[in-house]
Amino acid sequence: MGYAAMKGSLMVLIGILAVALASAVAAAGTTGERVVPAVFVLGDSTLDVGNNNHLPGKGVPRANVPFYGIDFPGGPKATGRFSNGYNVADFIAKNLGFERSPVAYLVLKSRNYLIPSALTRGVSYASAGAGILDSTIEFVPCLIDL
């Protein structure tokens, strides 16, 4: 299969998943209870909830300074999120019946709590700097190899 065909198939799959997610979010917003048992987040800095703060290396983008959490509950403290408050995954998770998006994979792994949390709540694999370009893909293996 050629690159163009693969890219087209991927875009169709992403479109189907987006429609399914939008339907689930709309349904959950009306009932106020969990529609799904767990949420698994994949993405870049717009969804990162602290994975990058645990990645080794000097060139890894990090959100470990207080202004990133200035509007997050609990006051101005470093949250690991590349936003000043809630991110998109938090709003989607909230509409699916969760308090906010799941905890970062590397945080759960360091606490040996990965399996229980993944089953009951989900996990966030999002990593700032991750992308589909060769110049940004270098951060994703760091999450997978650990």
Q: Strand-residue fraction?
A: under 5%
Series of H and E elements: HEHHHEH
SS summary, helix count = 5
Q: How many beta-strand segments?
A: 2
Number of separate structural domains: 2
Radius of gyration from the CA trace? 16 Å
User: Tell me, what's the shape?
Assistant: globular
Characterise this structure.
The chain is mainly alpha-helical and 146 residues long. It has 2 domains: 1-33; 36-145, no CATH class. It has helices at residues 3-31, 88-95, 105-110, 114-120, 140-145, and strands spanning 39-41, 122-124. The longest helix is centred in the N-terminal third of the chain and has 29 residues, at 3-31. The model has no long low-confidence stretch (mean pLDDT 75).
Strand-helix topology:
Blueprint: H1 3-31, E1 39-41, H2 88-95, H3 105-110, H4 114-120, E2 122-124, H5 140-145
Short description:
The chain has five helices and two strands; from the N terminus they run αβαααβα. The protein is mainly alpha-helical.
Question: Which properties best describe this structure?
Answer:
mainly alpha, two-stranded parallel ribbon, 2 strands, 5 helices, single chain, 146 residues
